[in-house]
Amino acid sequence: MSTCVKRLGKWVSLVSKRGLSTSSVQKDASENGVKSLNLYSAINQALHIALDTDPRAYVFGEDVGFGGVFRCTTGLADRFGKNRVFNTPLCEQIVNEAAKFRYRSGNQFNCGGLTIRTPYGAVGHGGHYHSQSPEAFFCHVPGIKVVIPRSPKEAKGLLLSCIRDPNPIVFFEPKWLYRLAVEEVPEDDYMTPLSEAEVIRQGCDITLVGWGAQLSIMEQACLDAEKEGISCELIDLKTLIPWDKETVEASVKKTGRLLISHEAPVTGGFGAEISASILERCFSRLEAPVARVCGLDTPFPLVFEPFYMPTKNKSKIMVGKWICSVHVEFYNVIDDDDDDDDDND
Amino acid sequence: MRFISDISHKRVPCYRVLDDDGELMTHTNHVQVSKEMAVRMYSEMVTLQTMDNIFYEVQRQGRISFYLTSMGEEAINIASAAALSSDDIILPQYREPGVLLWRGFTLQQFAHQCFGNTNDFGKGRQMPIHYGSNKHNYFTVSSPIATQLPQAVGAAYSLKMDGKSACAVTFCGDGATSEGDFHAGMNFAAVMEAPVIFIIRNNGWAISTPVEDQFRSDGIVVKGQAYGIWSIRVDGNDALAVYSAVHTAREIAIKEQRPVLIEALSYRVGHHSTSDDSTKYRPIDEIEYWKMERSPVNRFKRWVERNGWWSEKDELELRSSVRKQLMHAIQVAEKAQKPPLEDLFTDVYDQLSSNLEEQERLLRKDIEKHPKDYPSDVPL
User: How far away is chain B from the Cα of A178, in angstroms, using its nearest Cα?
Assistant: First the structure.
């Protein structure tokens, strides 16, 4: 546990360079209707706005009535009444019902306005069920959208866009950032567009693509690489499906290299989809194979979490390798293959 | 110390109005049905029966890919529909097309859906019998069992919150009650005090699973009380009993803002679907007995005739007219164009997403290059 906190401390200090801070306390920061908020408070603010602006909006699910296990629904029941904010058990109808309702009814009915909020990802002590990242499952179900925010400001703007989108959406909230990530968040009602990726760091040697909490790890890798003279471009995909291929394509055409990183297991992860699509579009411009730095193909392991995770150094090693073709022991399997090829030559 | 035993020694009685011969039973109270209503109910039951017979044959001839009849359950279909208002929202399973028929969905529209042509509201995307019509407040049928139950509770809760004087009505079979969604729906309805009517068609068979293997309880009606829901068992082959029960359930649901469960006892006279041969797992005698002796259509007919509201001449005219309409509808539907290719890609989301645009473009290119690889009857 202490290791985790120590590690967190590191990347949070990095995050603060992006305008986030380590404090989990809400600060009455500034004028102009901007407040320093952590991620759960930003989500809470978005839910207040959603219920306030649409009298037919409802919030229901496990424990939302008292404020939620992660406090995201705090105060909603008091403010809007228990007829609009109430507890229910879960009854899964996402894949067969919500996703297909518009298509199978010929657009006579739809499940627009349904946003399923769910925490995801590592938190240092979650084990199999509380730390997994199942986003790729849902990306394989036509009819739903999948959205993952990286920070409090993004979480609020994206969540409001999801709630008001005419399609059902699964909104994954990075559990690790609920209290940890703090950012200046406008207090007003604003929406961040879906299906638009954002270049959050410009660079020219390699493109890194990620989403959610993983972006903090990747940004550290970018900074470390920079010290070694490698210029990394970092893209936050934000919406996984339907995803913004054009932004990634434009970046890869510029840099000639691509690294994708996610916490979910590497095999069949959404990184594989990005890799295939970019190969189709940028094959002649690629100067190295597309790299994936992801979770392992195991259930999320409690004690072994630090081994499972796609860490900063795993990313950094791949970045360095792809740029400099340096032999790296960790990836010697790939290098052995290369050697074999050489022998054949 | 006293345990509650597994079953009560007294079975829950079954509410009946007409006896097996179509005579009004004595000492039974029921909601009055006018001549006009009775004749319409009977006519629609015959229409449903005829539609099933003809579409079933059309499927056997290979002209449509699949079919599923409501034979034996015509009374549950039509009498429940007759007792409801058109504002009530229907969330069907798939053996309730009679409700949609009652609401004005035409035989032509049924035929269009079964042939999956360009006039099908579902744009040819789902198997035959997956009807749906927003205009008729009838949710589009989906194949998974019991998912409609919690959805109906949500629809009912929405009616409640909007202050509407209407209820949601959902149907399922005995097999669906063993699914988790049945529990979720029932419990949620009771806790949220949602104006929803659950009409459970206990027709004896869940494809090949008989009710003896389905549950150990005294049917389904007893489950309502455990959830805190008003419940009644009704003879599902007695149109007047179904009409009265649903009519009263509707009043309770709307006036008292609470759910009601109706267990309608019946028998699935047809095979589960055209993909099933039920003689493999149940005796033909049993099927014949329910088809002839216990037919809900014949029983109701005797009552209507006894009242002097229906003659043999009416019968012949009706059957011949429905048959003609159906043959015409099938011809028209069979000749109608298939849905255009663009309907393959639309409605996944409210707008065409970029990945789908790309896939449509590539597909069209391939069709241009290799037209013989694709059916020629789909308009490009």
Answer: 30
